[in-house]
Write the structure tokens for this entry.
Amino acid sequence: MIRIVADAMGGDFAPVEQVKGAVNALHNNKDVTIILVGDEAQIKAELANHEYDESRLEIVHTTETIGMEEVPTKAVKTKKDSSLVVAFRLLKEGKADALVSSGSTGAVLTAGVLILGRLKGVSRPALCPAIPNYRGESTFICDCGANLECKPVNLIHFAVMASAYAEAVYGVKNPRVGLLNNGTEDHKGLLLQQEVNHLLKEVDAVNYVGNIEGREIMYGDVDVVVSDGFTGNIATKSIEGCAKAISTILKKEYKRNIFTKIGALFSSGVLKRFKKNLDYEGKGGAMFLGLQKAVVKGHGNSKERAFAVCIEQAINAVRGDMVAKMKEMIDKVNMDALAETAKTSAEGGAQ
Amino acid sequence: MIRIVADAMGGDFAPVEQVKGAVNALHNNKDVTIILVGDEAQIKAELANHEYDESRLEIVHTTETIGMEEVPTKAVKTKKDSSLVVAFRLLKEGKADALVSSGSTGAVLTAGVLILGRLKGVSRPALCPAIPNYRGESTFICDCGANLECKPVNLIHFAVMASAYAEAVYGVKNPRVGLLNNGTEDHKGLLLQQEVNHLLKEVDAVNYVGNIEGREIMYGDVDVVVSDGFTGNIATKSIEGCAKAISTILKKEYKRNIFTKIGALFSSGVLKRFKKNLDYEGKGGAMFLGLQKAVVKGHGNSKERAFAVCIEQAINAVRGDMVAKMKEMIDKVNMDALAETAKTSAEGGAQ
């Protein structure tokens, strides 16, 4: 049995949609048990609307919730009986194999590092969402906001971790890794990118293809895009906003008048596949890489389906033995030597 | 008469498409004269295919061209008879009011600063492209790659200059300015963004609305997005790539089979308007702000229409008295006081 612990109280529509998502995931995965952490009365009230295998669902009651606007460190340290903190504690204690939360990103990051703990050899855990690409596959961006400012060695870790993730969870063989930069030539970028571009060429464990520009993220020619967290965040959200704006324009245009509405009828197959191609919900949440177990951070606005996909992601991370593979890859890389090289050449400069 | 000088040799399809674009712009603007700078024989060979008002077109012959891959500073300093350098010299000498080139970005930036010169009070000239937004208008991003690393005061200049540009050339009244950041709260961002967010609130000449996330760039709720050049470059290209990927997916889906092709016929109006909404070519090039005259940098792959639009942009900058308005706005801002504030609070930290 694969055991998932889910924070039932994190997110704009918690706990209703989180409970629905959990029930949904239970139905589709017969070898999975789920612990829902949160207000028992509220969880039970929603569960009453559903049929599910009670033997595979457990509720752990908590009395506190961490809000989206709270200061993460303070909240995690003081709200000992919050759903998020208790969920992480259960994970740490071995009561579960992976965790899912659609609560505050900052709180998930903080609790992940403070309660669960980092994987040995990883200096900075990082967020890795999947972006739908032109080929109908996923492009993984790491980091996307956990570490705004980075040293070169952090980005080497991101490359290794995201490669292990893509391979273990999505079956991508020998993932192609690109460095997000303002041009493809070796001299491009700030000191950080110049240094990382140089170092990544020396890391055998990473299938590094070179610098890539922002416009290449969605082309699907690389599987993993490595970046500092600030830039990765801007790129990911820019693309998300663009996709949303374009979909909205298209929808609006089709609703314009009776003729365009007829056009929409004749195009329904096309539009359905188009939508599926750009299905952000279906891509799940961001995997929080570099912790001792798999942690999935869902969008704050996750509803049933999105949350269920996040749980599937966590399940697949356990099935694919993601953390063990990551450990193995990290051990292969001589991080100390790279860290030394990076330190010498980037001191006081990078970024 | 408005006098435009155009670098006929810069760009992937030069000089043929540049000459076509110039002829096109001449037709549509009877109060404009154009100087085409480049290889006279090649220019004349193309001109022979067109009818145009010869009294308004002049050719200045040059023998050299600056390639896309050349080191900008070296190329601008040594290739004295290159089309770009000569065009900038003519502009500097008062033979023209504005310049257009679709050659190497680095060379245009270098020649702009070295030959034409900065506007007084501006520490760093910056590139400002227009991105089509959800509302069918333009969002201006400044800087988008001229200055990879920036100090807070540079971004204040970008905000002022881009506001003047949007107002003078596009008639945007009191343009709303947002700072590109990884979240909307005041504490978000690196030291650079935190400082700039703080400073922009104090600049009366700028209609600052606060931090914006990458996803908001295309929503059209702000007219100007301010950023350091590295981040702006990543955001702009990410959006460009996303729009291109999505258009390609849509096109592919409509070509799938006979039914989808019929759907396309019934949707032709929609698709036409959709395409127009995302018309990157129609948005012209990036205005190079902060120089003593208007300089438009077109895409390297500009063809006739794109180059003609760049010329129109240059014409409109002259018509709208962009540089004078920019001067006026810059004078209104107490740059010295701001620079002092920025220096004190950001010293040794921001980026």
In short: The radius of gyration of chain B is 21 Å.
